[in-house]
Structures are given as structure tokens and as C-alpha cells.
Amino acid sequence: MLNEKKFKKALKKCGIKKNDNVYITTSLFSLGKTKFKNKKQYYHFFYKCLKDIIGNKSTIIIDAFSTNVVRDNKIHRGKHNECTTGGFAKYIIGLKDTMISDHPAHAIAANGKLAKYLCKNISKSNYGLDSGLYNILKIKSKILRIGIDFTISSIAHVAESMLGVPYFYQKLIKIRAKRNKKVKFCHYTMFVRHLDLITIYDNEKIKKGIFKACGAKKAKLNKGFIYSVDTKKYFEFI
Helix 39-54 crosses helix 87-94 at what angle (to 10 degrees)? Predict the structure, then answer.
């Protein structure tokens, strides 16, 4: 059974502390059952435990991906897009003071002190310069993986975009977006993979490197793990 004491202990073991800005990816089921049956209470448990440790001067950041908007030619509605990155992301997006960056497929949601700085006045790119994901590199933050193995983070795709790797390309997309109750066409760019190329990431090399070169930390929690690493160190390593 997962409880507050166990979860907070694991977070602290991973080096999460007061005033940390954290960029989160989750797979919560591996951490064990809780006493909560209601989904809202379940996700609030994780949010509150994290906030208790990092405090009110920090920022929680999470992927707010809505890839179905582009794939199915839906109207881009910002915070009201259907999020495809899990229940905890939907919970964070639903909080009143959460802000979301403007991209129809690869937005971020931010809750806390730096939310506006991260999500406003950004570029039209998903991973490129001044995108929501790139902006995470402008602040001091940690990548926090809760219940999920440390393979490729979206920050790795930002590194790939900055390098211009040959197995990705920039795609210009034209999408219908709702602005001030009106729908109009807007242009965005997406750094996407060439589908006719087979790309294999050396995940084992990445795992070893984040501990040796980046000083990543790891804590076991029931059948799952929690990882944390400095975001900029991870970016430079990738």
C-alpha cells in the first residue's frame, strides 16, 4: 500500500527539496495501491505530497500533449484540448491556476510561480527554440520520473532539434485554432521523425550516462521507481 510517508521519503531520497521546479512524467500504477478510490482524490494525493515538499515558490511542469488534434484535424482549443498524456496530466491541466503553452500537439502545462514565464510568449515550434519545452531549460529544474523508467525524455527531443539530427525534419502544419470564440487557421511547426527510417535509441547507454555523467538519483517505491536528474545536465548529455 502506498501512503504519504513512503512517497515523500522516496521523493526526498531522489533529492527533491523545497523550491525545486520539477518537470514530471508519470506511470503511477507501478507505485502500488492507495486508499483512494476516487480519481480526483488519487491524483490530488500525488500533487499535494509533491507540493508539501517543494513549496509554493516552485513550479510543477508536465507534458500536455494532444497529438490527436493534429492527427484527426480537430480544432486546437488550448487548455480544452483532449490531453493524451495520462490522468495525472489531465488533473494538473484542470487546476484553476495552471497555464498551458500554445502548441496543438506538444504543449506543456505549468502550475506554480513560473507558469506564465514558461507558457506565454513562446514560439510556434514543438521542440525548437523558445518552445514551451525549450523554456524549461531557461530555469533551474529537475526532470522527475515517477513510476516510469528513465528512457527518452521530451527534453531529449529538444536536444535533437537544436542539433538538427538527420532522422527528424521540420514539418509546417496548418491547423484550425479557437481564438476569442472565433476559429481561424494558424501555422505551427513540428520537429517529427522520418517514418521511413528506422531509428533505435541506445537506452542502456542513456541510463548509465545519466547516473555517471549527470548525477541522477533513484529511489525504489514498492514495485516501481522514482528518478530525478538536473534538466540542463541531461540536455547537455543527450
Answer: 70
